[in-house]
Each structure stands twice: as C-alpha cells, then as structure tokens.
Amino acid sequence: MDDFWVFGYGSLMWRPGFDHEETRQARLFGYHRALCVRSFVHRGTPERPGLVLGLDRGGSCHGVAFRVRPEHRDQVTAYLRERELVTRVYLETLRTIRLETGHDVQAMTYVVDRAHPQYAGGLTADEAHGRVQGATGRSGPNEEYVLNTVAHLKTLGIHDPHLEAIALRLRGGHRPEPSGQTAG
C-alpha cells in the first residue's frame, strides 16, 4: 500500500494528535496559510468567534508532513475528520506537497471552503488581531493558538510575516502592516 501523508500548517504541526512514523518539513504550492476561518468551536463561540488558520488560495505554504503507517490510515483519517470537519469549513483534499528531501508526495490536506459562512479571508493584521484578542473556545484562548503557532514556526525556521505581525500585536507591540499575506 502507498505511503499515507498528512500536511499540517497550523496546530497540526505542534499537536498532531495521531501516531505517525516520520515527520518532514514540506511545502504546498497554490495555497497559503492565513487566519481566515471564524472559529465557533475550538477558539471562539458563535457569540464571540475567534480566528483559526486555513489554507487559502494563492502562494505557497511551508509546513510539516507526517507519514502514517498504512495500517493506521483509516484510524488517522477518522480522527482528522472529527477534528477538522466540525463545522465543514474545510474541504478534505489530496494535494501534492514537496518534502524537504525534494520528493513530491500526495498528502491529505484541509483547505478552506471560501463559500462557507465562516470564511473570513483578506483580513489585515489589525482586523485579525481584533478578532483573535479575547476569543476563547473549547480548545482554549485564541491568543494562545496564534502565539503557539508562531513560536512553532520559528523553531522550524519558517517565516510568516502576516502571522508574526498579529502575534506582535497580541504581545502588545505594533509594526506597520506587511505588504500582503505572505505564505509561510
């Protein structure tokens, strides 16, 4: 049976929650990491939505690929569907990713559904900061999610100017808006 890969670009990078055999840095082309999903469950509520990451069209995203043993494929897929498809704002897809080794593989990837009512694309760092600050959901404070993601990206050597600008605002700092949302 073929290798089964899962691509992580947000909390899956630092809290995958499933058994995997190998971890590699990888890049997905055609999508970028963005705080573009209103969170009504994990990092916010319907009354006070937070924002979580999604893969939105355009650019590329540097993230982490997890290779799962073939015999665990069904179990991991079920787990990911329960975790990622809570409100159906993501579309489960297979996309080609490039591993840090230079090899291309197919990976299960969750991209944002732009037609979904929770889609919140194109926010500036100031707008995103205002939505993240103070939002809390089942998985904890929204600020924690953003700061943990930025810290993990930093340990991997991944630079994401838009997300870093939001994290700086959450820490009480401010800097000029980066020009456009740059993929990680």
Overall shape: it is globular
CATH architecture designation of the domain at 4-122: Roll
Please state the structural category.
alpha+beta
Helix fraction bin: 25-40%
In the CATH scheme, the class of the domain at 4-122 would be: Alpha Beta
The largest sheet, given as strand count, sense and whether it forms a barrel, is: 5 strands, mixed, barrel
CATH level-4 homologous superfamily of the domain at 4-122: Gamma-glutamyl cyclotransferase-like
Helix run count:
5
Unreliable stretches (pLDDT < 50, length at least 5) are 178-184
Question: Helices and strands, in N-to-C order?
Answer: EHEEHEEHEEHH
In CATH terms, what is the fold-level topology of the domain at 4-122? Hypothetical upf0131 protein ytfp
Number of strands: 7
Mean pLDDT: 92
How does this model look, in words?
26% of the residues lie in helices and 35% in strands. The chain is an alpha+beta fold and 184 residues long. The strands form two sheets. A five-stranded mixed beta barrel has the order 1-3-2-4-5. Strands 6-7 form a two-stranded antiparallel ribbon. Mean pLDDT is 92; it is low at 178-184.
Characteristics:
single chain; alpha+beta; Hypothetical upf0131 protein ytfp; 7 strands; globular; about 180 residues; disordered C terminus
Write the layout of secondary structure elements.
Elements: E1 4-8, H1 11-14, E2 22-39, E3 50-68, H2 73-84, E4 90-99, E5 104-112, H3 125-132, E6 136-137, E7 140-141, H4 142-155, H5 161-170
Parallel strand pairs: 1-5
Antiparallel strand pairs: 1-3, 2-3, 2-4, 4-5, 6-7
Helix pairs in contact: 3-5, 4-5
